[in-house]
Design brief:
By secondary structure, this protein is an all-alpha fold. The chain has helices spanning 2-26, 32-58, 60-79, 87-116, 119-150, 155-158, 160-174, 187-205, 207-210, 215-236, 251-280, 286-314, 316-337, 343-370, 377-416, 422-436, 450-457, 459-488. The chain is globular. 58% of the residues are buried. Keywords: Antibiotic resistance, Membrane, Transmembrane, Transmembrane helix.
Length: 505
């Protein structure tokens, strides 16, 4: 199962490293590359609940196989994207299909692992599961950088093929028993949650393009949240809902979900923003940017194992409190050091931020799953993964908007200081922001004239402008972890006990 989910973890980071080459070859728009990343995360958030429910209804082994096949076929098609007018739409669409495959695969795989271990050993087991998966996520940037530099960026998608083949062989050899549960599939509920999440994240993502004062922005955000509210009301009246909302009556489960939400606002977006920062402000190659992220995973992997042991011995609360404090401090210190433009000065804070996230993810996820109603591990896993990936989508969208706004203001000030008129400076600044935010292309402009020459002369200053703009993003991540701490202290501190399934299950 760890091998099966390896593809989904690797794919969250490997594409960010290849982003500059993808943009240069395909000519994506300013927000196109962020949507290539965000489409995958959004599909995960939208369909995780469906994946968890399908694992319960049809058995986890069958859903693991189907999810793996969907994921790998979409990966091949992403790598085969043609150049031209349809490149951006093609890539975004099949990245979303990848997300659908991962949404089917992950809850089913995790349900298999959870069912194997008794509750008193589950913390260490899932810490190993998440720790190794996290280590495989660290392989993503390294592998992506090497494949992009030595072959082609398309290989970052094709690399999933051998992994999928091995995963399918191992799944067959494991002889996993499928234990379908009675019930029906809530198709209207699945549609409501997918549309609600999609609309709300679309509003956040397009806020920079449309403006926060645009009716379209608020129509999407408010409309999406309204649909999610309708979804909640609809689910309460069903005998076999997509999500059994009774689980949120457990205070510890609700706290686990809230802490996961705030942690994931930072966890996945940090890969995208830190890799682009490394390539723009530090002039790092894709391989060097990958090593930059490796510091994060050293802290993550070590803390993940420690957090699992704390969960087994003392419950989730100590691990959640420690993780949110370390994460908030780590991200704040990292943000402060971004303008030093030195990877050497930043690595301790990068590792500290990673350790904070490592203390959170496995204990919060495991404690939540341990509180499953009627041992419906697939369904509860679907809930927690929906929360995690929706938060990642929102974080990427909100922080992307924040970065673009701060970057434009910084570059406008830089160009005005070099004698460019305010109107022209603002226009040029927006173009520069479009060229660097999201894909790390800091190539100086060509041509002659005052504007072009002033912009070329200012490129070193613009690198600092980008670093300063990223400070707002990383301070925002620190704030997210601080809010997570306020939730963690409300955890009742009790330890979950095994819940036996009812006779009909």
């Amino acid at each position: 199962m760890m091998f099966a989910v390896a593809m989904t973890f690797i794919d969250q980071t490997i594409v960010s490293i290849a982003a500059p080459d993808i943009v240069r070859e395909l000519g994506l728009s300013s927000s196109g590359m962020q949507w290539v990343v965000n489409a995958y995360l959004l599909a995960l958030a939208a369909f995780f609940a469906l994946g968890g429910r399908l694992a319960d209804l049809y058995g986890p082994r069958r859903v693991v196989v189907v999810g793996t096949l969907v994921f790998v076929i979409a990966s091949v098609l992403c790598g085969c994207v043609p150049s031209g007018d349809y490149a951006q739409s093609w890539l975004i669409a099949f990245r979303a299909v990848q997300g659908l495959g991962a949404a089917l695969l992950f809850p089913a795989a995790l349900a298999v692992v959870v069912a194997v271990f008794p509750v008193e050993r589950r913390g260490r087991a899932l810490a190993l599961f998440f720790g190794i998966s996290g280590a495989l996520t660290a392989v993503g940037p390294l592998l992506g950088g090497w494949l992009t530099a030595s072959w082609t960026w398309r290989a970052v998608f094709w690399v999933n093929v051998p992994v999928a083949v091995i995963a399918l062989i191992l799944t067959a050899l494991a002889h996993i028993a499928d234990r379908p549960r009675p019930g029906t599939l809530d198709v209207p509920g699945a549609a409501l949650v997918a549309v609600g999440m999609g609309l709300s994240v679309l509003g956040f993502q397009q806020a920079w393009t449309w403006g926060w004062g645009s009716w379209a922005t608020w129509l999407c955000v408010v409309g999406g949240l309204a649909i999610l509210y309708v979804f909640v009301r609809y689910e309460r009246g069903l005998r076999h809902p997509l999500i059994d909302l009774r689980v949120f009556r457990d205070k510890a489960f609700a706290v686990d979900a809230a802490v996961l939400f705030f942690a994931m606002l930072a966890f996945v977006p940090v890969f995208f923003f830190s890799s682009v920062y490394a390539q723009v402000s530090l002039s790092a190659s894709p391989n060097q940017a990958a090593l930059f992220l490796l510091y994060f995973f050293v802290g993550f992997a070590l803390a993940s194992q420690w957090g699992g042991r704390i969960l087994d011995k003392r419950g989730a609360r100590p691990a959640l409190k420690a993780g949110t404090i370390l994460g908030a401090v780590g991200f704040a210190l990292w943000a402060h050091e971004l303008t030093n433009l030195s990877m050497h000065d930043q690595w301790p804070y990068v590792a500290l931020a990673g350790a904070g996230i490592g203390f959170i993810l496995a204990p919060a996820s495991t404690d939540a799953v341990n509180r499953a109603i009627g041992a419906s591990y697939g369904e509860v896993t679907g809930i927690t993964q929906t929360v995690r990936n929706y938060a990642a989508s929102v974080g990427l969208a909100v922080f992307g908007t924040l970065l673009s706004r701060a970057m434009t203001e910084n570059v406008t000030d830089t160009l005005r200081a070099r004698g460019i008129s305010p109107a022209v400076a603002d226009q040029v600044a927006r173009g520069i922001t479009d060229s660097v935010s999201g894909h790390g292309d800091a190539t100086p402009p060509t041509g002659t004239g005052q504007v072009a020459e002033a912009t070329r002369d200012a490129m070193s200053a613009i690198q600092m402008d980008f670093a300063q703009a990223n400070q707002w993003v990383f301070y925002g991540m620190a704030v997210a972890l601080a809010l997570g701490f306020l939730c963690a202290v409300r955890h009742p501190g009790d330890r979950a006990t095994a819940k036996a399934p009812t006779p009909s299950e």
